Amino acid sequence: MKHLLCTLLPVFFLQACKKNNGKPDTDTTYNITISTPGSEQGYLYVDGKYTGTLVPGTITIPTGRHTIGVALQNSWSYLRKEVDISAKSTVGFSLADKPVPKTWKALWIGLNETKENAAGSECSTHFSTSELDEAYNFFAWSLKEHFEKYTYGTTQWETERKDITTPIILSKESIGYTVEPSSITTLLPQIQPGIYDCIFVFWRESEGSCSFPGNYFGLAWSNPLADATKTGFVAVKFDAGNNIADKINDYKTNDPGVWIHEWLHTVGENFYQDVGLSLPEKESGFSVHAAETYHYTFPWMDWYRDFVSGRIPNHNGSPAYLGIGPEALLKCTVRETAAGSCK
Ligand SMILES: [Zn+2]
């Protein structure tokens, strides 16, 4: 599969094409007053789509059965109810309306040694297990602070860690040195369709005079279901300098989004589009890289939040907001889709 260049580049062009979607006919509508636990402010969704309305408050909803959801701003929780709308009424949310989160399964792999070829005399880069512990903690931190928060608790991530001590032979591609999925899957036969949603590989770019540069920080493969393993694949190439903990802290402070950025490539370029969601228009081929087109700024954390929660304002018209959203995240994951175990 195709590699992604995953450093966000400045964007100078706005997409000019507009979609020609007509608005659906609306039937009778009713004013519905929405309340939240402790009157905490939240973003209101109807049938999985962000309405642009903050609640507590009142909104007009068409007659019929609807899924009404609220993503609470401060507690990062999503509450949902299915409601028959047939009259002016009040819908009150409580914490009991929090759905059971969908479990996503990650395999995190730290590479102890990476090298250019199998010959033996060339240089290698290395991470010790304690250095990989630092990297794994960075990943686990991001799962809590970004993945699970931005999904408003509709996902919970279970991670298996499996470091590889066998030297991994790098591939030389047009963007530089890469760890290809096949170099990992041949060593780990447990990677099969339906087992993991995404594999995250972490390896060392340079060590002393040994260097495997590439024009990227992280790479993701953007169409997991088209790959043999039907699993998302992400590789982060880390320039650890003299002290990996210092480098990671610097990223956590100034540019913390690498893990969620790469994960979003695995689900935000094809996977959710293929089930009919409206994601941002692609910039240079990738929806995840369209942040500046939609007027978001570095380090893009608001972009990832709104991408995941389906709240990117769509300057091109209809639908009003773009992205994934909590209702979609409660449905089939990548591995469930791969296994055919999900309706
Ligand atoms: Zn990218």
What hetero molecules are bound to the protein chains? Answer: zinc ion
Model regions low in confidence, pLDDT < 50 over at least 5 residues? 1-25
Percent of residues in helical segments? 10-25%
Strand content: 25-35%
Which structural category do the helix and sheet elements fall into? Answer: alpha/beta
Overall number of domains: 2
Count of DSSP H/I helices: 7
Main β sheet profile: 5 strands, mixed
Strand order, main sheet: write it out.
11-8-15-19-18
Coarse morphology: elongated
Written as H for each helix and E for each strand, in order along the chain, the element string is: EEEEEEEEEEHEEEEHEEEEEHHHEEHH
Nearest-angstrom radius of gyration?
A: 22 Å
Describe it for me?
The protein has 343 residues and is α/β, with parallel strands linked by helices. It has 2 domains: 1-24 and 100-343, no CATH class; 29-97, Immunoglobulin-like (Sandwich). The protein has helices spanning 129-150, 181-185, 244-254, 258-268, 301-309, 326-329, 334-339, and strands at residues 29-35, 42-46, 49-55, 57-62, 64-72, 78-85, 89-92, 102-110, 113-115, 124-126, 155-161, 168-169, 171-173, 176-178, 198-204, 206-207, 210-211, 218-221, 232-238, 312-313, 321-322. The strands form 7 sheets. A 5-stranded mixed β-sheet has the order 11-8-15-19-18, with helices on one face. A 4-stranded antiparallel β-sheet has the order 3-2-5-6, with no helix packed on it. Helix 1 (129-150) packs across helix 5 (301-309). The longest helix has 22 residues, at 129-150. The two termini are 27 Å apart. The relative contact order is 0.17. The chain binds zinc ion (ZN).
